[in-house]
Amino acid sequence: MRQLSNASTQTTMLVVEPYGVFRSTVAAVVRELHLAQVHQAASIPIGTQVLMNTAVDALVLSLEDNDAALDLLIRLRAGEFPSSASIPVVVTATACGGALALRLKELAVFRLLLKPLRIREVVQTLEAMAPECSPEAGSVVTHA
Length: 144
Hints:
Elements: E1 12-16, H1 20-32, E2 37-41, H2 44-53, E3 58-62, H3 66-77, E4 89-93, H4 98-106, E5 111-114, H5 119-129, E6 140-143
Parallel strand pairs: 1-2, 1-3, 2-6, 3-4, 4-5
């Protein structure tokens, strides 16, 4: 399993997802499992703003807005944000062709989850990303 941060610090995760139900479900799962403090963003511009102001240990990124989402991921990997350029990133998408899959691999995506998702897939992926979090983990911050 992959450890996101030192056990003495709180792990933070950003979920950038336009669909409120999915975003809230991911945040609730993370909170219930005490995996991380979750920041939620409903759009790429809001997610970008969060990344500009907050260092996170993991990112769940929807490819709903494909070009903007890929641009955000490229900027993250280029080190343009306070977060480490190598944080684990989970990408969600409704479909993924060969060219996109290759691009995601080049950008070191931890895992691609295709929608519709089963909650078990989400839980397993999030647990694999953050197996050891601090006891105070599990809060949720929503950015409007």
